[in-house]
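ok trying again, last paste got cut off:
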Amino acid sequence: MTRAASETPELPPQPIYTLRDYKPPIEPEPFYQHYESGIPIAIDLGSSQMRAGLTKELKPNNVFPSVVARYRDRKAATTLTLVGNDTYRDVSVRSSIKSPFDGPLITNWDYAEVMLDYLFEHLGVVGSSVTGGIDNPIVMTEPVCCPFSQRRTMYELLFENYQAPSVAFGIDSLFSYYANSATPAKSNGIVIGTGHELTHVIPVVNGKGILTQTKRIDWGGDQCQTFLSKLLMLKYPYFSSKLTPSQATNLFEEFCYILKDYQYELSNYLSLDYLEEKDIVAQAPIEFHQVVEKKKTEEELAKQAEKRREQGRRLQEQAQQKRKEKLEQKQQEFDYYSDIKNQLEGLDSQDVLLTLQDAGFDDLNDFNKYLSSLKKSLKKSQDGEDDPDQIEDPSITWPLVDIPDEELNDEEKRAKKRQRLHKANWEAREKAKEQKKQEEEERIKFEKEQEEWRARDLEDWCNTKRLELAEYISGYKERVKLLDSFKDRKSAAAQRRMKNIADLAGDEANNSSSSRKRKRNATIDNDPNDTFGANDDDWSVYREINNTKLEEQQEEDQKRITALEEELLKFDPDFHYEDTFAASQTFDWKNLVLHKFIHGPRQSISISMQAEGKTPEEIASHPEIIKRSHQMHLNIERIRVPEVLFQPSMAGLDQAGLIELLGDLVLKRFDGNFLSGGQSYSLIQDIFITGGLARLPNFSDRVFNDLQALIPTGSPLKVRLAQDPRLDAWKGMSKWANTEESKASFVTKKEYEEYGSEYIKEHGLGNVCLR
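nice, full thing came through this time. structure:
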């Protein structure tokens, strides 16, 4: 264990949440066994789920997703239509899943009819003996401010297709409020209905929704999962797979929550202690295909090495054979053209040209040039230039070098120059070999001395090396500061550099007229006043100007620092990676917000593996790295997505937030009287939250805290949640349908035929007719 590890408390592994798609219930959709005609059927037709059942029950019999899929079975030559949970049971069908809704409104009425057929069949509905249609009144939900076209088409579907005796429509959030009120007819309050597509704020006075003062936010559960998916894809642009809507929905429902005090808690949200508690790791499915390599024995490794050596010898022999064949070919070619040259001696110029053209040459000059080049190539090979390292006796290889020029003819003198050049090259190589051999011997001697020193006094060796390392690091840092100071033109180093450039640009030492006259007639090579370059140190000014010398020194120091650190890491028990110069130059991930945002409260494993010196290939193929590349960290997203309800601008919505709408209602839209008997006084005593988003933790606390800051101190503010935010709308429909009040709110089939499809009967829990 390293020293840093011993100082940092060991943290337990983070829990990992596996991304999963929607899984339908194992049991098939139930069929209702206690059907009775005449009992109203309550249908909560939502854009996310459909809930339906006879109103004599305490809960709906059928609850399933509002989706339809049509699948063509080519073998059976039939088209299958699946509804609800059945669409998710077969993987091949999932790609064709569609919803009859577009936003909060139905746009595909064929699919809506299929869903109703499926529903009535599972409710065990028996056709009427008179009409052949449904013999049960229908209570159904519809959107707030439902367009006439929606209600007209639904009327046509229920009355003309199913022959329903009567139909009543209402608003789901008001039905939920009705189910959670002890005295519904006298209730006053504000209903916050958070649906799948929209969120509404509806004031209720004496049990009736005041729709003229209803406010809407274009934000619901569907927008939440879409926004969460976009945030995560933006956060991890190279993630291995794309989040499906059901995966994003599961993440939102399980891990997102509302902060009681957003601004205060957000300031500490990315601290390590807070992240340790709030960060969620989401793991995408991954399959490892590891190939287990069998370790080879020493005998097999020896055979492989011998095989490689044999291949090397074979290649050398092949190369030598090719050189030999090439030399023989050149010799044959030289002999052939030499015979041609001899034949040309007795021929006239015309025959010589014809003979050379037949041989492939343009003229005699071209022929002589090629023959001379071929002769030189052969001579070079014979002189041993091709194999300079195989020379054993220079006096035999280059015999003319030691013979005086007086004893040689012109041809031999030229050959002597070539041999002397070859011998000088050979001697230089031999000298380099000898120097390299001496350096190797010195290195071995130095390492032996270092080893003896460490064995004799390891502590002294370590201290000496540490001091030497500190000196190099200090010099390195000083040069870094100097290089940085060049970027500031007002610094002393930059001013000195500019002075050197100015000195090079012009010489101010001599400005006399005679000197200028001499300079006009002088060049760079003959100016008697120009003594620059006489001293070798003069040329260092160029190195000072372009910083080359400093950069070279930096590279040399970096190499020395690395070498010393490698020795200390190997032999010094108290020197760890955290003590190296490279570690001190790396960023502190604990104080880097971006690192904590992406990787959570733990260090990225790729950084630690890079610090260990592993290659990029090893890091990329490491199983843990592959696993981490399939993970996402949910931290800020857990609070940012629900916060859009209170701050819509965070998601690009140009709308007021929930608290702003509530404040506008109680302070401006109603009398603003928070004393006993005032309208605002009665409304704030019962703020009711329902719908799918009502299940978010801290929702009621946040509404209470924020709204309390807007109303007068001491006002009797009360905020409550629905007992069952998802099913209470249906329970309210069931409760309302069995009262005497509801009987006057149903539109009968006869009234529909007489008054038309735009006719509705108003009641306190539904839409009103705008006149």
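cool. Confidence is low (pLDDT under 50) at residues 1-8, 385-389, 507-525. The chain has 30 helices and 20 strands.
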